[in-house]
Amino acid sequence: MKKRLKELAEWVGGTVIGDGEIEITGVSSIEEARTGEITFVASPKYLPKLGETKASAIIVSPEVTRADKSLLCVTNPHLAFAKIVGLFFCKPYQPKGIDAKAWISPTAQLGKDLTVYPFVYIGDRCRIGDRVTLHPGVFIGEDSSIGEESVIHANVSLYSGTVIGKRVILHSGVVVGSDGFGYVKDGKKNVKIPQVGSVEIEDDVEIGANTTIDRAALGKTIIRRGAKIDNLVQVAHNVVIGEDSIIVAQVGISGSTKIGSNVILAGQVGVVDHVEIGDNVMVGAQSGVSHDLAPNQGYTGSPALPHREFLRTITVLPKLPEMRKTLLDIEKRLKELEKKFLSEGKEK
After folding, report:
1. What is the DSSP code (8-state) at residue 322?
2. How far apart are CA 157 and CA 210, in angstroms?
3. Is there a contact between 24 and 5 (Cβ–Cβ < 8 Å)?
4. Each residue of 204-236: pLDDT tens digit?
5. 240: helix, coil or strand?
6. Which one of 20, 35, 190, 295 has the largest count of C-beta atoms within 10 Å of its C-beta?
7. Contact 84/70 with Cβ under 8 angstroms?
C-alpha cells in the first residue's frame, strides 16, 4: 500500500508541514524507520531523534514546527499513529469457511461468513454470529453465544453458558466461565459452593493471553463494553468491570468487586473482595486495594492511598531509622529527668 502524506493527514485530521506529496509505504519506530516510512514522536524526550531518524515523515504534536523532515501535526500523535498502523496493516475480513476437522453440534446455530479452523469444538445449542473467527483448539461449551465479528484465538475455553458480545477479541489461552473459588468450612473440611452463575462479556472488549474470568456463584460476572484486559489477569466470580476500563497484566480482582467506568488498574494491583472502585479512578502499579475508592482520583500504595497522601507518606520512610533513634534518645533523657525530679523531691 502507498499513501501520500496529505492523504494520511486527512485520515487522522492533521496538518502537513513540508511536502504533502511524499509517498508513505509503511510505518515503523523512530529508531528503525527507513526511507518511505512514517514514524511518530509522542514524548518530548524523543525530540532529539528528529534529526537522526531515516523516516520520510514524522507524526508530531502542534508544538513541533521545525525539522529537516516533513511533519504531520496532530493533537494526539500516539492516536494518529495507531490509526495509520491500522490503515496499513488491518486487512478486510475474508471468510475461510468451516474446516472439516471442526466438531459442531447439530443443535448449534451458525451465522454467515464464518472462519472455523481445525479442532474447534462447538457444543449443543451454541449461537455463533456472522463473520466470527474461531482459531484451532477453541472450546465453546453448551448454551454459549458469540456475537458477530468476534475473534477467538487458539486454545481459548468458553465454559457452558458464556455470552460473548460483538467484535470481542480473546487471545490464546483465555478461560472464561471456570468455577469461581468458593468454599465454606465444615470443621476442617473445605466444602465447595456450587458456582451456578455465568459470564457476560459485552461488545468491543479485548482480553489478553492466559487471562481467566470466573463464572458467578449466582447471577453474572460482567465485563462491560469497551473494557481492555491485559495478559495474565485473574477476574473472580461476580466481579463487574465497567465500560472502557483498562486492567493491566497480573492484576488480581477478588470476588464481587465492582469496578466503575474508565478505571485503570496498573500492573500487579491486587483488589480484595466486595469493594467498589469509582469511575475514572487510576490505581498505581503493585497497589493493594482493601477498601472502597472514591471516583475521579488516583491511588497508590498498599493499602492504596490517594496519590498525594502516598507521596507524603513515602518521603518519610527513609527517615524512620533516624527518627526512631531520636525518639529513643528523647525517651532515655526523659527517664533520666524523672529520676532526677523524684530524687530531688525525696530530699526536700
Report:
1. H
2. 10
3. yes
4. 999 999 999 999 999 999 999 999 999 999 999
5. strand
6. 20
7. no
C-alpha distance across the termini of the chain, in Å: 103
* Sole residue written with cell 447439530: 106
User: What is the CATH T-level fold of the domain 97-309, as seen in this structure?
Assistant: UDP N-Acetylglucosamine Acyltransferase; domain 1 (2.160.10)
Place of cell 460482567: 222
User: What is the CB neighbour count within 10 angstroms for residue 226?
Assistant: 18
For 348, residues 6+ apart whose C-beta sits below 8 A from its C-beta are: none
Q: Is the dihedral of CA 67, 72, 73, 78 positive or negative?
A: negative
Helix 5-12 to helix 77-89 angle (10° resolution) is 110
3-state secondary structure 148-159: CCCEECCCCEEC
Structure confidence at residue 336 (pLDDT): 86
136 prior amide bond cis, ω within 30 = no
Residue 31: φ, ψ to 5°: -80, -35
Cell triple for residue 239? 466481579
Strand partners, 212: 175, 234
| pLDDT, the chain, mean | 94
Q: Grade residue 49 by pLDDT with cuts at 50, 70 and 90.
A: confident
Q: For residues 279 and 267, give the distance between their C-alpha atoms in angstroms, rounded to a whole number.
A: 19
Angle CA 257–162–251, to nearest 5: 35
Q: What does the pLDDT read at residue 50?
A: 80
pLDDT digits (tens, 9 = 90+) for 104-132: 999 999 999 999 999 999 999 999 999 99
Residues with catalytic annotation?
A: 237
Strands 157-158 and 175-178: parallel
- Alpha-carbon dihedral 82, 85, 87, 93, rounded to 10 degrees: -100
Does 3-89 carry CATH code 2.60.40.60?
no
The Cα 132–Cα 44 span in angstroms is: 41
Q: Which residue has the cell 458469540?
A: 146
**294 has a pLDDT exceeding 90:** yes
Cα distances (Å, whole numbers) of residue 85 to 11, 81, 97, 313:
12, 6, 28, 43
Q: Percentage of the chain with pLDDT > 90? A: 81
pTM comes to 0.87
